[in-house]
Write a structure and sequence with these properties.
Bound molecules: erythose-4-phosphate
Low-confidence stretches: none
Structural class: alpha/beta
Oligomer: single chain
Strand content: 15-25%
Mean pLDDT: 97
Order of helices and strands: EHEHHEHEHEHEHHEHEHH
Largest sheet: 8 strands, parallel, barrel
Length: 217
Amino acid sequence: MPIFVDSSDLSELRDCVAMGLCAGVTTNPLIISREAPGVDLRARILDIIEITRVPVSVELTTETEKEMIEEARGYRAWNPEHIVIKVPMSEIGLRVVRTLEAGGTPVNVTCMMSFGQMYLAAHAGATYVSLFSGRIKDMGYEPAPIIEKTRAAIEREGFKAKIIVGSIRHLADVNDALSAGAHIVTVPPAILKKMCWNPRTVETIREFNDAWKNRKK
Ligand code: E4P
């Protein structure tokens, strides 16, 4: 089960790579504006690729079909081997998905909140379909049934799409996404670090190491 990292923070990404926890990177305009305001986007994305050597999702911010295709082609030219184009879900977005995928550009359809959207994105030929767990929970319903139905539809119909679950806010969101059938979870570094930690583990390691230091010689 690949874990992607939902961040553009270079130091956090280095840590995740060192722990073997970075099979992909997802960014979005909000993440980059918060973590690296004023940054040159091209330079930042190329730095991320240099550190991680994995697929890196870069999101479109234009809103007409023509602009979106041009924006996508510009990003892909930076590094065709690693750049995945994140296309926000919409009617225009689906047209853009078809054009880009037909030309060999992998697309991650993003900002999705429902089974209907996930199904249409997979049907359009997207490589990745991204469901936003935390934002769905903010609206008062559960992402797990959407993940289960999408996974079943992908298997049944032979779509190539992989389900990414993002908008992860708590450890339990990761566990729930994985057990509901997500192919991939994209997790902020702070939550990945929390996943390593358990007070009983820390206490047990302390007990073992103290016993070794204090053994009779
Ligand atoms: C996923 O690809 C998105 O970058 C991300 O998880 C968005 O979630 P959030 O804005 O709710 O944190």
